[in-house]
Design goal:
- The chain is mainly beta.
- It has 1 helix and 16 strands.
- The termini are far apart.
- The relative contact order is 0.19.
- About 3% of the residues have low confidence.
Length: 204
């Protein structure tokens, strides 16, 4: 350590870092946190929790927060945003000076992957033409697919939008997504003709 820095620490005894812990059980949208510093280190964060911050001004780009992530930039405040995530939390170390603070770990970060363990299959007939139907996906859905059987299918994930903003699936064509974690989502769909069946599979 530089001798001048050591002398300053002994003499002035400044508080060089702060630890802030936030429960993510309550939703926030650009909640202002008035604290200044040069470094933000994500010291602890519940697995699969999601949160972002914006430095200094709420119209700046959002920065995602992940366990072990370090953000180095001068700031006098930040804005925290998160959805309501029961039982989740995040702890941030706020350093007053990047020259006097460094966080490192001798243990490499481990990639944690959630593998699906359960599969749900749904067959939803579109009995009436140009009429929206829906199917809720399993909670904490990690992968899903939807296939048109016996006709054309218009599919979306927003209620009342399957007739205007949709993905078009021709007969026997499918749409799938994986590497996701949907807490609670629903597929909405309709067919321009009668007789089409939506074949849906959801993994959680």
């Amino acid at each position: 350590m530089d001798a001048d820095i050591l002398k300053e620490l002994i003499t002035l005894k400044p508080k060089t870092y702060f630890i802030l812990t936030f429960s993510l059980s309550t939703a926030r949208v650009n909640e202002e946190i008035k604290i200044q510093g040069d470094v933000i280190f994500v010291d602890d964060m519940t697995l699969n929790a999601v949160a972002t911050i914006r430095l200094n001004e709420f119209n700046n780009d959002a920065l995602s927060l992940k366990l072990g992530k370090t953000i180095t930039a001068s700031f006098y405040r930040f804005f925290l945003t998160n959805t309501a995530q029961s039982g989740c939390s995040i702890s941030l170390i706020i350093a007053a000076s990047k020259e006097k603070f460094l966080v490192s770990s001798s243990t490499p970060a481990q990639l944690q992957i959630n593998w699906p363990t359960h599969c749900s299959i749904y067959n939803v007939p579109c009995t009436l033409a140009a009429t929206e139907y829906s199917q809720a996906l399993p909670s904490n859905c990690l992968k899903f697919s939807v296939k048109a059987r016996g006709g054309v299918l218009w599919v979306c994930m927003t209620a009342s939008a399957s007739g205007t903003t949709y993905i078009l699936l021709a007969d026997d064509q499918s749409w799938s997504e994986d590497n996701i974690n949907l807490i609670a989502s629903t597929l909405y769909f309709q067919s321009p003709a009668t007789g089409c069946i939506a074949e849906i599979i959801g993994w959680n």
